[in-house]
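Backbone-to-sequence.
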């Protein structure tokens, strides 16, 4: 694993072979996300698949992964809406630096969990930089996110993976409890989008904090395999 700074963010890069899929994973080490742990999971699940895992760290989880300001809507968090700056950093600094150092990929995907899962889907729908997305237990309850999603289109010939814990929509918080319906509607939007070549919605057992690493790895593996499929047929 190579760890270095690109502009204002720390990146951890693990390369397995040339080409393949570049996996951009938004994470926050203060919340216990470990790049080496996800890479170990992927090596067990897709040992023969070439890929490069780029784990990019948020400086502040709620600031960097919120696409627009929403204030303190949950009673615990302050969402300041700095996601556009994060996406611009990915497009203008991170991706060129990574590809200059490690070579060009066959495809790029973006993945995240929770707030980073919502950010990943927002970035995927806002940019042509990524051909695949895995939004794992993504915070699609975020105010106005579904309004955005209803008007958005995915990149051409792209693939999308959505997942959610089956207990997450039973939250006592009225805002968070909308996440299940939001997830179902997003799945329908992807189904209707002619640019989406393949998509899936997976329901996992448990609540939001159950098996985060395994859920993330499962999403990555599905997207990597779908992105590679046209070249295998």
């Amino acid at each position: 694993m190579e760890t270095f700074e690109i502009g204002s963010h720390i990146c951890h890069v693990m390369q397995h072979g040339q080409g393949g899929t570049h996996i951009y994973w938004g994470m926050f080490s203060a919340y216990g996300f470990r790049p080496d742990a996800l890479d170990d999971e992927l090596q067990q699940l897709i040992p023969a698949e070439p890929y490069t895992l780029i784990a990019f760290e948020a400086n502040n989880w709620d600031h960097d992964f919120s696409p627009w300001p929403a204030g303190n809507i949950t009673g615990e968090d302050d969402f300041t809406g700095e996601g556009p700056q994060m996406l611009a950093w990915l497009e203008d600094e991170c991706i060129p630096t990574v590809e200059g150092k490690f070579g060009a990929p066959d495809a790029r995907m973006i993945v995240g969990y929770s707030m980073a899962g919502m950010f990943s889907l927002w970035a995927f729908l806002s940019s042509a930089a990524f051909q695949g997305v895995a939004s794992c237990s993504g915070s699609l309850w975020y105010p106005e996110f579904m309004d955005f999603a209803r008007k958005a289109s995915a990149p051409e010939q792209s693939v999308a993976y959505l997942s959610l814990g089956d207990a997450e929509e039973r939250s006592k918080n009225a805002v968070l409890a909308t996440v299940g319906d939001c997830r179902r509607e997003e799945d329908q939007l992807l189904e209707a989008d002619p640019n989406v070549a393949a998509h899936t919605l997976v329901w996992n057992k448990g609540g939001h904090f159950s098996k985060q690493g395994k859920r993330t790895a499962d999403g990555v593996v599905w997207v990597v395999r779908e992105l590679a499929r046209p070249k295998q047929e």
